Amino acid sequence: MTDEEQRSLFPGALEMMVLQTLRLGPLHGYAVAQHIRQTSNDLLQIEEGTLYPALQRLLREGWVAAEWGISPRNRKVRIYRITSAGRKQLQREVSSFERMLTGINRVMRPAES
Amino acid sequence: MSRLGQILHRRRLDSELAGEIAVHIEEKADELVEAGMSREKALLAARAQFGNSTAVLEQSRAVWSFALVESLLRDLRISARGLLRAPLFTAVAAATLALGIGANAAIFSLINAVLLRPLPFPQSDRIVVLWERPPKTMSTASLGSRNQQNPVSPVNFLDWRERTRSFGGMAAISSFPMGLSGFGEPREVDALQVSAAFFRILGVAPLLGRAFDTSEDVPKGPHVAVLSFDLWQQQFGGDKSVIGRTVRLHDEPYTILGVMPQRFDLPFERAEIWVPIQIAPGMDSDEGRYLNVIAKLKPGVSVAQAQADLSAVARQISGERPYLSRDWDARAVSLYEQTTGEVSTALLLLFGAVTFVLLIAAGNVANLLLMRGTGRQREIALRAALGASRSRIAIQLLAESLLLSIAGGILGIGLAFAGLRALVVSLPALALPRIDGLQMDLRVLAFSAALCLGATFLFGLAPALAFSRTNPDEALKQGGFRGTSRGHRRVRGLLVVAEVAVSLVLLVGAGLLGRSFFNQTSVSRGFRTDHILTMRMFFAPARYYDDRRRARYLDQILARVRALPSVKAASSAHFLPLVGVVSGSGFHRLDRPEPAPGTGPGADFLIVSPQYFVTMGIPLLGGRDFDEHDTVSSEPGIVVNQTFVQRFFRGEDPIGKRLGLDWNVRHGVIIGVTADTRQTDLKVDPQPTIFLNQAQTPMYFGALVVRSALPPATVASAVEQAVHAVDPDQAISHVESMEQVLSASVARPRLESILLGIFAGVALLLAAIGLYGVLAYSVSQRTREIGIRMALGANPAQLARGIVRDGLGLMLAGIIGGLAASFALTRLLRSLLYHISPADPLTIAAVCALLLVVGLFASWLPARRAAAVDPVGSLRME
Q1: Judging by DSSP bridges, how do beta strands B224-227 and B252-259 pair with one another?
Q2: What does the pLDDT read at residue B328?
Q3: Beta carbons of B24 and A33 less than 8 Å apart
Q4: I want to staple B362 with a disulfide (CB 3.0 to 4.6 A). Which of B416, B458, B855, B857 is the partner?
Q5: Which of A30, A56, A78 sits opposite B28 (nearest CB)?
Q6: Which pLDDT belongs to residue B483?
Q7: CATH no. of A3-108
Q8: Domain definitions of chain B by residue range
């Protein structure tokens, strides 16, 4: 899956999932990727590398913060944590995402029935 | 973290991210190994799962960067590489711009130092200089040249100060070189006698001690002095205990009260020491006019209001003291205008000239870029075909121009800096006011930077727009045939026409100034300047208070000087010729009814010693020179010049006629007539002049003039020794040859004509290069066409003539445009021109001829190449 294809799904989806993941607690990059993969039951096979530009964007917007720490496997890593601005942003995104899903459903259902 | 911080920490961010990615892949591999995979396979799988880590890094980096700045930097890098690949083009373009930008930076630095820099006094816009203005009947042209600004008499100053309401303070200033002794070599210092208000008006506090106050500025007040910073450093070694000590000025003790800060000075009158002027109402007033006056406007009062106030008071005085001030008016001039008025015209003119030079330079570079762009049209078309947008291409072309500008700007500033240093060294002191403040300050650098940017758009925009419009289809289809579009050729032609026009204006201006300078220096001066040594002296009033004693003192000095072996003649004058000042006063014929007070005629007055005319080589036309029989006790003798005779004794023999004088000798008899001389300034025609004898009306100051067989510099020390043999404490200043005095008097017009000449020469050169470039390029583009025509039997000479015709056509169009512009513009020169009309036909014809010759040459070179085209070779070339 290339970057372009993924973006064409819908922009901001990855960021939304990262924020949602971090809401559970501070994690390092690999743990975030693992969590997304596992909770989606491997339905979302994201190319793990794309996680990092997304994290940079979140850092730039101030929605997550990072500090150095130690991973469960004892490696020096950056631990990401959601900020309060990030929580608000997540709420906004989730609600707009839900509105979008509702809209899509209304369009799709008549065709199905 | 701020974005700027992020950019600065880019490297760290990169390495951190790279580390983070590595950890990610390792942890993934760890997990896979735990699931039973081999380490090697696990790493490969982890990497595959991760994706392209370089791309990830780049995308992460992009999140933080300014896309615009990054792409501009990239454009600049690409442009720099492109420019380095074409070193000749780059060198020519950068050098051309360096000339244009350098000339502008240099002249702007001058303007900044002289005109823009605020005067170094708080609220300096409220400081004015006050003058008396003589009635028309009395003024001679010697005054006329100085804007009708006459120094002020003490009684009038006191009345102005008393009666005007516009000023918050008014101070009289009298320049008075004084012998400073008691500290090593006696030396003459530039002293100013000033009112106590002087320091308050200028608003500058002393660095040490205090300035004198009103209680000390009264007749017979204490002898106190304030030192300049420089004098304090030089003569007293910067010793702080100098306050309260005593120095001897003109043989009298003065107590030092304070030291002024560095560079505290009136812009038009240098001083090393200030002493109170101590004039007051009721004193036995000297009614001569010798004071400079400054004043500070009350807040909210304009110069015009102050002028009206002052004139009203002058009218009262005219009625009250007709014998002194009938019909005399007064003038108020802002200190800024007083300081810069005379030079601002010339500086602004030069600024206009260098702007023209920059325009021509920009035109040339635009032409170069157009030619280079035509050669690169396929490259540009290729990029357009590969998807580069029009604005991307235009921006990249502009980036190239910007680099050229910056290179030219840096070179140019260096050029300006070197040029200005040379200029300052070659200028006599005070030839340009405030030149000491000349420096490359931030304002000059900002101006130069703005100039670079402006120039970039000036010469870069047209080519950038022209080529970004390139239609890739067409350009690529042309294949091997490198075509030049007709539109570009027309633009190039127009640029050359404009360059020629502009350089014609500059050349005419330079020609006019040059001829004016020549007229000025070749005018008949009426006296000789070779082999004459001059030096100036003040006679200490304490020692030489008595008239007879003062007269005898100078006689003794002259006797010793004349006795020196190499000296042929020696004399003195109270003002040397060409130093810009002379005394003037009224007189009347005693054989005619006396005119009403103040309505009589005026003349220049010059006080000289016997043999002045012989020493200066001024022919005596009748009667006799002063001699030793003319003394304080005999009837004062008067020598007049030819103009005086023509104006006041037309058809009569003036010898033996008696004159009443407004001078401290009240009358005298005409004993001789001399030829005319130019006294104050070479531009001022000879004025009616009355010469009086130093022995009969001894002045407190004078200049020795010594004619010798040897060069003046070689006799200077012998003459100084002769002076010191009479009085070892006599201070001497301005030891100069008469040639130096002459040269200093025309320093400014010489500077103006040299600078304008240089700029016009640069303009001509650039325009010639421009014309040559356009023609040479067109020949090189048309080699194939020329080859074909030759193969078909065209005559090489005919082809060459065609090229020359093209060139001269452009030249003529430029000349016609330039003539129209120069008729409009050279009128601005009028105030700087001497004895030449701004529309002088000879100058204009000579400039046109010069341009045609240069144009012919610039066209002939490419024409010759066209004629030498080898038809076979040219057809094989593509």
Answers
A1: parallel
A2: 86
A3: yes
A4: B458
A5: A30
A6: 46
A7: 1.10.10.10
A8: 3-65, 135-327, 343-522+747-877, 541-728
